[in-house]
Amino acid sequence: MSMKSKLLIFLGVLAMLGVVALYVQEFQWFQNYINPRNMVLGALALGGLLGFGLGFYFHKTGEELVDKMRIWITCFIVPVLLMPLLASLTNRLFAERKIHETKVEFWDEKRHLIGRIPTIYGFLEGDKKDEMGYFIFLIINGELVRVKSKTPKFPNAVQGDSVVVPIKKGLFNVDFVDWQD
């Protein structure tokens, strides 16, 4: 194996680890989107079309049928996996700077563990306790929406109260809650 091949493999592994790290970082934001369904479906469709085009262009370089199939599959899967990440990053990073303080209906606020899940026996003695986070359930535009926060936002609110939530409008018109904590 040549040095060039080893370098390309190394760079490919680094790129894959970078994508995984970006997805992990983006999940915390993705959970605070308000109805991201259309953005995700659009990104998957765009990734599929892009993958089909790349596969059509590059499959000619394969000599045997197995090589052509590998090229088609790789060219299709990679864009389909990357597009939701790119759509979410683009929507959030190029969002309006202005935060809209929006009045919504409060439904509930629940504590949850952030981090690992305990075994079936619970936490073992001496285990480090994980920190707590909060799921906040809100009624926004007539839909029940769950968002996450590291701290309790409405400790004294009861179901049906009106609360003010900081919402940003994303580039693709997909709004998200920006707690700034």
Q: Beta-strand level of the residues, as a percent range?
A: 15-25%
Structural class: alpha+beta
Characterize the biggest β-sheet. Answer: 5 strands, antiparallel
Poorly predicted parts: none
Helix-strand string: HHHEEEEE
Total domains, how many? 2
The CA-CA distance between the termini, in Å, is: 49 Å
Helix-residue proportion? 40-55%
Q: What gyration radius follows from the Cα positions, in whole Å? A: 22 Å
Mean pLDDT across the residues is 88
Sheet with most strands: strand arrangement: 3-2-1-4-5
What is the general shape? elongated
The number of helical elements comes to 3
Number of strands: 5
Q: Secondary structure elements and their pairing?
A:
Layout: H1 3-30, H2 37-58, H3 65-93, E1 100-113, E2 132-140, E3 143-149, E4 162-169, E5 175-177
Antiparallel strand pairs: 1-2, 1-4, 2-3, 4-5
Helix pairs in contact: 1-3, 2-3
